[in-house]
Amino acid sequence: MSKLLIIGAGGHGKVVADCAKESGRWDTIAFLDNKQPRPQRVLDWDVLDRLENAHYYLQEYPDVIVAIGDNALRLKLMETYKQMGFCLATVIHPSACVSRYAALGEGTVILPKAAVNAGAVLGAGCIINTGASVDHDGVIGKGVHISPGAHLAGNVRVGDLTWIGIGASVIQQVQIGANVIVGAGTVVIRSVTSNTTVVGIPGRAISRDEGKNGWI
């Protein structure tokens, strides 16, 4: 009887749990979360305990997925649970289209109607959100979040911890550095250096403080 432990019972955690259930890979799914009171159920699933008590559940729940939106924290927790002895699961919704010739890193989630095409390589702990796509030969780093409806054309490279906002588009052969924020609806037509925020059509760099005022 296979069991999956999901780290985080917030909005993203609910979506991951739903995808895991629909995939049919696990008979039992449960959460760990530090904000939900216990005993508590979120949708159909129990919240068992706090995050720091995961080791008590290792034997019963050998598979774990970290369902936390913060990219850096997600990777940090993945490493923590891997060192405890958990297996970092990959969750793919059955409606997603993932090529047999694509490679997915551990702890990655592919949500409904997303597409990952032939030759694409995704690092550990990525989120390919609802209806997003990574086209042929794309190389996506660790801890990247490609938001709902965002589309990456062929041969795009994306560095670690980057966030591609909802509805953004990236043309072919563009390179996007690490820790980049691509704002919602942005069209990226040229390469982007690390630690940059880009918004608009076509994408232009802005300061991170400017982005906090509603651009992203």
In short:
Helix content is 16%, strand content 30%. The protein has 216 residues and is α/β, with parallel strands linked by helices.
Report on the structure:
With 216 residues, the protein is of the alpha/beta class. It has two domains: 3-89, Rossmann fold (3-Layer(aba) Sandwich); 90-204, UDP N-Acetylglucosamine Acyltransferase, domain 1 (3 Solenoid). It has helices at residues 11-23, 71-84, 208-215, and strands at 3-7, 28-32, 40-42, 45-49, 63-66, 87-88, 91-92, 97-98, 103-104, 109-110, 115-116, 121-122, 127-128, 133-134, 139-140, 145-146, 151-152, 157-158, 163-164, 169-170, 175-176, 181-182, 187-188, 197-199, 204-206. The strands form four sheets. An eight-stranded mixed β-sheet has the order 7-10-13-16-19-22-24-25. Strands 3-4-2-1-5-6 form a six-stranded mixed β-sheet. The longest helix is centred in the middle third of the chain and has 14 residues, at 71-84. The radius of gyration is 17 Å and the shape is globular.
Topology:
Blueprint: E1 3-7, H1 11-23, E2 28-32, E3 40-42, E4 45-49, E5 63-66, H2 71-84, E6 87-88, E7 91-92, E8 97-98, E9 103-104, E10 109-110, E11 115-116, E12 121-122, E13 127-128, E14 133-134, E15 139-140, E16 145-146, E17 151-152, E18 157-158, E19 163-164, E20 169-170, E21 175-176, E22 181-182, E23 187-188, E24 197-199, E25 204-206, H3 208-215
